[in-house]
Amino acid sequence: MKSERSIELLAPGGDADAVKAAILAGADAVYCGLAQYNARRRAENLTIERLKELVLIAHRHSCRIYLTLNSLIVDAEIPEVAAIITDCRRLGVDAFIVQDPGVLYLLREYFPEVEVHASTQMTTHNAGQLGFIDRFGVRQVNLARELSLEEIAELAGVATERGMRTEVFVHGAFCISFSGQCYMSSAMSGRSGNRGACVQPCRRSYRCKGGGTEITPFNLKDNSAFARVKELAGVGVGSVKIEGRIKGYKYVYATVAAWRRQLDRYFSGDKPHDDDPALHSVFNRSLTSGYLDNRIDRSMFIDSSRDRSLVRVATIRSYTADTGVLKLDREVQIDEEVPVLIYAAGFTFVCTGFLGERCGRFEYRYRITHKLKGKIKAGDELYRQGDYNGPEDLKERLDALQVEKRRLRVAVYGKAGSPLEAVFSVDGRSVTVQSEQPLVPATKKALDEDVITGKFSLLGETEYLLDGVDCGGLAPDLFLPISALNAMRRYAVEQLADASPVSSPVPDGIVPKGRWLNVERWLFWSTMKRICGSPVK
């Protein structure tokens, strides 16, 4: 149970299971992205259809959903970005996380009612920046990860005066450069970190010119402010954020649950803990609070990017690519659903996969699930994730977390020569729909409760379940084509979706869901109305 508190716990959601894991673990909000225009394009990310379901699940568990639009946008992409905002606002997305000042302008001018957050990619580290983004209606700002507690305190005070909430990363990966200001990936590979395609060159090994041992000079440990929750609350931080949209649901559950326990301890008056075993049971490169402590030195770095939660399983003797058979130096027993990772010398990652059936002494079928980063060869090491600190039935719980159907009731009215009128009601809201064609005397099967129920109950993948039809207002022996009933049902479902309570009401004049090609036309006419003195709707 969530206690009364003033700090938001913000969790990563790279895929649907991760979003659900965050909800079950007690997150107050989850940030997630679609396939484009976000800083983690390597994450699985979500489709619009999946996002709709997750928004419904989240809201029924008092959890908010923030959509990441935190990459740089070029002119040709603006119409599609505007359409995504329109679609996601209709789904009930609670806020948009933004990097590009142009998108801030777009939201301020054409979507002034939506909640806007400033991404860490904006590298907000001084009061002047807070003043700048305040002009665009930003209500929550993720401060640069490189700030000390004293610097955070100063900015949190300025933000509070402007009615803005500060957000701080408290767990997960660091970048060697200020987020949003690094061009190393672009320079090395042509893949921009500011376009969501960073190849993480700071995690790689390098050799000095002329030879020598490979080293990882830019490889930082992971961030952990777990022991500093009291200080963060004391300086006015409003949201603590966990990094990890390219990590799995077990990582999300473990880290969010640990932070939920920590925050609840603090807000119930108990002394916060210095650490939690759950944080070490999932991916980590060892942990540091160097930036927060203003202690930026060599102790923040680590000699490899290896996952410190991994447990060595065996050494590889041979691998046959044609048959997928992996021969080890000893017998192992690993569940077929537990991923195992292969690393070469120097802890260089090769691939991830699953061990299948035994094929002989010390031999196992190996199913590779990710693109090979190198050849599997004798001497490579096999690892598995450490013992997981979480519920054994977590995946079953995630699968069971589905949208509960809303019970829909319909009352129909009509007489000969008039259209059929149907009132669709759900959760205290109703939509009235009339047929385009009038009712006529029946010459064959007349409309009755069975016919109408049969057609109005075809609700498919929608969130509704027909709970009954009242035909008391319908005159007997009348006829209407089945196609007209189907059209009424489809239209009513669309209208109910628009009537659903969302964080940002949809104003008139916004582009309908899915009509991306009309966005430019809508933006043009909205601009013309502004030039002529009419307010933008």
List the helices and strands and how they pair.
Layout lengths: L7 E6 L2 H10 L3 E4 L15 H13 L3 E6 L8 H14 L3 E4 L2 H10 L5 E3 L8 H8 L3 E5 L6 H13 L3 E8 L11 H6 L32 E3 L4 H6 L4 E4 L6 H19 L19 E2 L21 E11 L4 E4 L11 E5 L3 E13 L2 E6 L12 E5 L8 H7 L5 E9 L4 E8 L2 E10 L1 E2 L7 H8 L7 E11 L3 E2 L2 H18 L19 H13 L6
Helix pairs in contact: 1-2, 1-9, 1-10
Q: Strand share of the residues? A: 15-25%
Residue share in helix: 25-40%
- What name is given to the CATH topology of the largest domain? TIM Barrel
The rough form would be described as globular
> What is the alpha-carbon Rg in Å?
28 Å
CATH homology group of the largest domain: Copper homeostasis (CutC) domain
Q: What is the first-to-last residue Cα distance?
A: 41 Å
What structural class do you assign from the helix and strand content? alpha/beta
Please tell me the total number of domains: 3
How would you sum up the major sheet? Answer: 8 strands, parallel, barrel
User: Mean pLDDT score, rounded?
Assistant: 87
Which CATH class of the largest domain applies here?
Alpha Beta
Major sheet: arrangement of strands: 1-2-3-4-5-6-7-9
List the total number of helices: 13
